[in-house]
């Protein structure tokens, strides 16, 4: 049994079948990639996993518990953190403040009325946030207004914020989309390092084959809302069905 | 000190000095001079400065931190006033129970209205709060007449029970509001040459409560709760996907700001024990929005400045009438004078809101951060001048050596 079990999930948008009979099992402590051409339903699947969308039928189990019918913050508190396609950070706050918020969420849960003690007195939170910034190699930017950072740094911060929550499953939606080659390689290295240092399961949606084949231990290919094949990277590369669904697209493009 | 860092402590001390010395600061002109009309050191005006300061400080906790723009906060102010007057009618003329009740009742009201309104965000939230406030106004104005005394407004009478106090004074009058015997309307005047300064008991009570309110708001701003509120304003999506439930945070901010409004309403009634429905009208809700934005939303001191600024100019501008204008423009030829007076007339007296509108437009356009931003720009300008001067001097010194 994997840490994440998706069974017979269907999702329709009006007449469009975005997901049909999706089955997926992600093994604990693995890196699992979900690939597929544009419009295959990858983001839709991710939205189902984090509670943004509710599937029409099927079940989604995380660590033996159903996530369906729970709100995004409840699912997050179960141990699933999500990195967005365009970085979602607190643009009005400093880098350090950005990093402290997930630390609070981890320590105090989804709501805590702590209105009269200073943030500066929260030593454990500050130390943890600083350590995380050191790990992310951005401690020198701690006082910076986060909105003014480069896109690569924002992505790095967002990944760090997700890790500060010590999630059991980290979901990434095209983390290198729109990035320059150097930033992409940095992100790959960062994810490799994260995987080497902690017990964490990573599910990554990615368009970029280079990223996928550098990281993934297993790959699921999604096309028109249905998983075509699931296998180890070496087998996926030469798979005729994948070439048809996926590489056909890039040949046409 | 007091759990504040140095910068916040300085801010608090500056505000404390301004508020406690207000009777001097606001009366810079000799009592009989022509400029005396610009004096503002009268007890009831100073009371309004600090009471509306409290209202705006509380509003800023909601709007400045979370970005939720309530258009109905006057409802809580009104509820606070009604509660306080009822306390004066039923219990005693001591202001403490009245103020406590006004805070509690306003808090409960805010809990209900906030719970429903916070189901929506953005403009829909604003409209919901506006709708609730207008409903409250209409209820107070007509339906709930037994509680609010409708159009006339709620007043003290000689038949009120006042079970812990006295129904009437020995001379047969209605007793006055007091703090354990200190009468709120009592005041001392200090004469100093041509100057006179008034110290009112009511003002100092309001001032001290305002300083406590301000201190609490600083603590909230610097707390983990305050950080969460700023995070809500910045990115609700990230909040949700970081395992944080934004609703109770926003609701807590809403209730706290409602309690501040109730406190302001209770103090208004403590200074002058009557309450009318007009206190709940949408114009009153709009005014606190203007105060906060004009001063600088999301800053500590902005709402205090905004409230002072609006209340000061409201008082000064509405006192200016046609004859004052004529005396100002009398140096002009008569036809020009009449024309000038005719134009200026529309911006003073009852036309003060026209001036306020213009001021507001100017500030929002040129100083989006409000008066606080204006102050910061001036300070920066001075610093740069100083730095430039320093650089020039250094350059001048180094020249001969070359
Ligand atoms: N909220 C939505 N409403 C309607 N259609 C949607 C919605 N989200 C996605 N779709 C459609 O579902 C299909 C799958 O989209 P998506 O999951 O975003 O694909 P991918 O991420 O694999 O590129 C697309 O055809 C898309 O237009
Ligand atoms: Mg997508």
From TrEMBL, chain A:
GO MF annotation list: ATP binding; ATP hydrolysis activity
Keywords (A to Z) from UniProt: ATP-binding, Nucleotide-binding, Transport
GO CC terms of this entry: plasma membrane
Top-level division of the source organism's lineage: Bacteria
SUPFAM superfamilies in alphabetical order: P-loop containing nucleoside triphosphate hydrolases (SSF52540)
Name of protein: ATP-binding cassette domain-containing protein
Entries under Pfam families matching the protein: ABC_tran, BCA_ABC_TP_C
Gene3D superfamilies per UniProt: P-loop containing nucleotide triphosphate hydrolases (3.40.50.300)
PROSITE patterns referenced in this protein's UniProt entry, alphabetically: ABC_TRANSPORTER_2
Domain ABC transporter residues, every copy: 4-249
InterPro entries (alphabetical): AAA+_ATPase (IPR003593), ABC_AA/LPS_Transport (IPR051120), ABC_transporter-like_ATP-bd (IPR003439), BCA_ABC_TP_C (IPR032823), P-loop_NTPase (IPR027417)
UniProtKB/TrEMBL annotation, chain B:
Location (main, coarse): membrane
TM segment ranges: 49-69, 98-116, 123-144, 201-221, 248-268, 288-313, 350-372
InterPro entries: ABC_transp_permease (IPR001851), LivM-like (IPR043428)
Entry's Gene Ontology cellular component terms: plasma membrane
Keywords: Cell membrane, Membrane, Transmembrane, Transmembrane helix
Membrane topology of the entry: Multi-pass membrane protein
Localization in the cell: Cell membrane
Pfam family membership, one: BPD_transp_2
MF annotations from Gene Ontology: branched-chain amino acid transmembrane transporter activity
Protein name: Branched-chain amino acid ABC transporter permease
Lineage: Bacteria, Pseudomonadati, Pseudomonadota, Alphaproteobacteria, Rhodobacterales
